[in-house]
Write a structure and sequence with these properties.
Shape: globular
Radius of gyration: 21 Å
Number of domains: 1
Length: 398
């Protein structure tokens, strides 16, 4: 394998781009994939459309925060394990800081009904629509793949559960093995310079499962509230499929009935988590800070994201090797089409249905989408315009 030489500037660029995404990526995990696609595939060309789609498919299949794992995966592909860590750090730190500060002054803020939050939701509509348009054109070029995507949409809308998503991906993979096994798709692509070895991957996966087994045992033996908290957040990050929207109720079950946090405090943080950019898993930073101050916020953040990091480091070396096999290639062709369907379903419910409630909402979404897709304005400009539009919408009456 070709050795890639990296400089401080390369690592600084990985961190800076991830940090910028962490500051501007509003709208939840599905919107994040749109922001990543726009930045890493369209603008930077760090990955091809196919490599990015395969990475998204892999991360959708893994438990944990899919968008964060995609970001970590891009960082690893670009700069090894250190690049993955820097990509994670840049994308995660902004919302962690905001939610820790919010937790320290939870009784002073009231942002639930702020109009700018609605503007940010409309930004998410534009970004996700743009991502679906780009990915759909590349990944569903024929009637067979269009059919797979449509069936995935229908399944996700009628049976909205985490296991439906996993089932769709598994079924699509089996279909792809039979339908696309011998297909010469997209021609020969340049190899990714992935420096992770299978040994590192195996160690990472072993550590993931070891912690999952050992932490509850140590928590029961020990009287340490810190260890108990770490175990709760680690398990929440390790066993949740479907991303941040699914982990929030799981965390409520972990900490409200046990008395670590009141229902009122939990709901206040829940509202704040919807308003900040970056991954929804950073809600753990808020909870940890309410429970045990700033050190608790840092501990909770590390604990809930550690499984995601271990899983993506553990699976990427094997994914890189397996995707070269014809049967695996065929599986990913179909899985990529299914992922487009999953994105469309998430675009409709909850993004569209909870955001576009009036004609003026649709008008603003259409303007932002056009500026992003046709005028090629950068995402951060769209975010600013969305905030301004959200503030002005209540004063616009037809």
């Amino acid at each position: 394998m070709q050795k890639v030489s990296r400089t401080f500037r390369d690592y600084a660029l990985i961190f800076w781009i991830a940090l910028r995404l962490g500051v501007t990526s509003f709208g939840g995990p599905i919107a994040h994939l749109g922001y990543f696609h726009d930045e890493y595939v369209r603008r930077r060309k760090w990955l091809s459309e196919k490599h990015y789609a395969d990475l998204v498919a892999l991360c959708q299949f893994l438990p944990g925060p899919a968008s964060s794992q995609v970001g970590i995966g891009v960082g690893i592909i670009r700069g090894g394990v250190l690049g993955g860590f820097l990509a994670f750090l840049g994308f995660t730190v902004p919302s962690v800081i905001v939610l820790i500060l919010f937790a320290l002054a939870v009784h002073s803020f009231d942002i639930y009904d702020a109009s700018f939050i609605h503007g940010l939701k409309i930004v998410a509509v534009a970004v996700v629509a743009h991502a679906i348009m780009g990915m759909g054109a590349k990944l569903t070029p024929d009637l067979t793949r269009k059919a797979i995507a449509i069936l995935a949409v229908i399944a996700m809308l009628f049976w909205q559960s985490t296991w439906t998503q996993v089932g769709i991906i598994l079924i699509a993979a089996v279909i792809g093995i039979f339908l696309f096994n011998k297909q010469e798709n997209e021609g020969k692509e340049a190899q990714l310079h992935l420096t992770l070895s299978k040994k590192i991957g195996a160690i990472s996966l072993s550590l993931f499962f070891s912690l999952l087994i050992v932490l509850p045992i140590l928590s029961n033996i020990s009287n340490s509230s810190w260890l108990t908290m770490f175990d709760s957040f680690y398990r929440s990050g390790a066993l949740v499929f479907g991303g941040g929207h699914v982990v929030l109720p799981l965390l409520e079950q972990e900490f409200v009935p046990t008395g670590f946090i009141t229902a009122e405090e939990f709901l206040a943080g829940y509202g704040a988590a919807q308003a900040v950019p970056g991954p929804l898993f950073t809600f753990a930073a808020y909870l940890g800070t309410v429970i045990a101050g700033v050190p608790g916020g840092v501990l909770a953040t590390v604990a809930i994201f550690l499984p995601a990091f271990l899983l993506i480091v553990g699976t990427l070396p094997f994914w890189h090797a397996l995707r070269e096999k014809s049967s695996v290639k065929g599986a990913f062709v179909a899985v990529n089409a299914a992922v487009v369907g999953i994105l469309i379903a998430a675009f409709y419910q909850p993004i569209w249905t909870s955001t576009i409630v009036e004609v003026k909402d649709f008008a603003l979404a259409l303007i932002l989408f056009s500026l992003l897709a046709f005028w090629k304005l950068p995402s951060w400009v769209i975010v600013i315009l969305g905030i301004i539009g959200g503030i002005l919408l209540p004063y616009i009456n037809f």
